[in-house]
Write a structure and sequence with these properties.
By secondary structure, this protein is mostly beta strands.
């Protein structure tokens, strides 16, 4: 089992920045990838950024150049710059373990005002 706890969401004006954090606990040695997904009202959950252990991160086209994902052992971060109103969503931390199972945090709300 892996438990994930997100923090860092909030209200920010367009053009501003936020940094999301996610702390993993449990069988963290089995984690092969961590990432961030988001779900806006009325829309499906979508990948924002993902980083595989020992690999390069990948980003959704909509956030390339603005968001940066980083990982430090059992924590993963999402630095979000130049935020836009369309970035408003609940952001979820995700961890994939070597067995293929996926774990989710409860989410943190990011609201970008225009």
């Amino acid at each position: 089992q892996v438990q994930l706890v997100e923090s860092g969401g909030g209200l920010v004006q367009a053009g501003g920045s936020l940094r999301l954090s996610c702390a993993a606990s449990g069988i963290i040695l089995r984690i092969k990838a961590m990432g961030w997904y988001r779900q806006a009202p009325g829309k499906e959950r979508e990948l924002v950024a993902r980083i595989i252990s020992g690999g390069s991160p990948n980003y959704a086209d909509s956030v390339k150049g603005r968001f940066t994902i980083s990982r430090d052992n059992a924590k993963v971060y999402l630095q979000m710059n130049s935020l836009k109103p369309e970035d408003t969503a609940v952001y979820y931390c995700n961890a994939e373990v070597v067995s293929g199972r996926s774990y989710w945090g409860k989410g943190t709300l990011v609201t970008v005002s225009s």
